[in-house]
Design goal:
Helix content: 40-55%
Order of helices and strands: EHEHHEHEHEEEHEHEHEHEEHHEEH
Largest sheet: 10 strands, mixed
CATH topology of the largest domain: Isopropylmalate Dehydrogenase
Radius of gyration: 20 Å
CATH architecture of the largest domain: 3-Layer(aba) Sandwich
Number of helices: 12
Number of strands: 14
Shape: globular
Oligomer: single chain
Bound molecules: nicotinamide-adenine-dinucleotide
CATH class of the largest domain: Alpha Beta
Number of domains: 2
CATH superfamily of the largest domain: Isopropylmalate Dehydrogenase
Structural class: alpha/beta
């Protein structure tokens, strides 16, 4: 089969980690007889510099006519003084909106080989960790009405948290489908003891559950979920939550797995279309030094193979290759510990390609 992939390398370490991921995808294509056709497009600071706009229409057009999008990262010190609405990071929000990406999947997988990078006690993570946070991505407080007004207390700012039942239903269905493919266990996280929008969330998730009688559904308040994530994370399998709670909870879940350089993500639209990206940013402190860990982006490509192209065997092969170089003792600087061999971005890509060939 042939697949069209829009590549958005972006800024900082983005182009470096994308380059290694393309090598890996090409190796998979060669081994399994698939053609991956990549079209590189501009977004973020690179686009601001080239055309004065962080998300040119041509980028949106290429993404829309592709089967999937692979993004590195955007942003950096150079553009930090621009006003909020002109910053490179706006490109990400724009892409989510333009491409209808309403579901963000963030697996937090602790590789046994990296157990020592986890800040939790060994007895808490014994046997490893494998959680997926499904975060609603296009609604809630980040997209609600916002503004300033004058009150007797001075300047007052507000951001409205709002959810429509259809928005909750579609993300709940993504999460239940995910739970069906895994251990049939779903925790819905909200703040229904305080927020009206959370009460609606809870009632819609409970309604959707009727179509998934095999899935064991639980509800948890966000404050408790944040605590349980470090106290007993193994109780979780799939978590579904709103935009703001998911933002925070998925960062917490990723922290317990060790390095930010290891974590992939997928943002899905209706149907199979998706945008895949590492959870880390553009890491300007290490950009251009062959120090970035490309594994998060390579694992994002594995998610693309699985969720958009339906190529599970190929996705497993990529994940196996990543695991194999870890078990051979190779480490980039971010996951380095004494006794292991330090390698750079390019060598990591090359070694993963080699492991796929074996
Ligand atoms: P960051 O994720 O870029 O970096 C945080 C720390 O983690 C840094 O020390 C960095 O060196 C390290 N790190 C990150 N990725 C790594 C990798 N693959 N390998 C090794 N080390 C890695 O977060 P930040 O410093 O807060 O943000 C830097 C820029 O990235 C900012 O402009 C920010 O707005 C942007 N950003 C973009 C995205 C995105 O494109 N989706 C996400 C987050 C931040």
């Amino acid at each position: 089969m042939n697949y069209k992939i829009a590549l958005v390398p972006g800024d900082g370490i983005g182009p470096e980690v994308i380059e290694e991921t393309v090598k890996v995808m090409n190796k998979i294509g060669e081994k399994y007889g698939h053609g991956f056709q990549f079209t590189a497009v501009l977004a973020g600071g690179a686009a601001i510099d080239a055309v004065g706009n962080c998300l040119p229409q041509s980028t949106i057009d290429v993404c829309k006519t592709s089967d999937a999008v692979l993004l590195g990262a955007v942003g950096g010190w150079k553009w930090d003084t621009l006003p909020g609405d002109q910053r490179p990071e706006r490109a990400i929000l724009g892409l989510r909106k333009q491409l209808g990406l309403f579901a963000n999947l963030r697996p937090a997988l602790l590789f046994e080989e990296l157990a020592e990078a986890c800040p939790l006690k060994p007895e808490i993570i014994e046997g490893g960790l494998d959680i997926v946070v499904v975060r609603e991505l296009t609604g809630g407080i980040y997209f609600g009405e916002k503004g300033y007004k004058d009150t007797e207390l001075g300047r007052t700012a507000y951001d409205v948290e709002q959810y429509a039942e259809e928005e909750v239903r579609r993300i709940a269905m993504v999460a239940f489908d995910m739970a069906m493919k895994r251990n049939k266990k779903l925790a819905s996280v909200d703040k229904a003891n305080v927020l009206e929008s959370s009460r609606l969330w809870r009632s819609v998730v409970t309604e959707v559950a009727k179509d998934y009688s095999d899935v064991e559904l639980s509800h948890m308040y966000i404050d408790n979920a944040a605590m349980q994530m470090v106290r007993n994370p193994k109780q979780f399998d799939v978590i579904v939550t709103s935009n703001i709670f998911g933002d925070i909870l998925s960062d917490e879940a990723s922290m317990i797995t060790g390095s930010i350089g290891m974590l992939p993500s997928a943002s899905l639209a209706k149907g199979n279309f998706g945008l895949y990206e590492p959870i880390h940013g553009s890491a300007p402190d290490i950009a251009g030094q062959n120090k970035a860990n490309p594994m998060a982006t390579i694992l994002s490509a594995a998610m693309m193979l699985r969720y958009t192209f339906g190529l599970s065997e190929e996705a497993n092969e990529v994940e196996k290759a990543v695991k194999s170089i870890l078990s051979q003792g190779y480490r980039t600087a971010d996951i380095m510990s004494p006794g292991y061999e330090l390698i750079g971005t390019k060598e990591t890509g090359d070694r993963i390609v080699k492991a796929i060939g074996e």
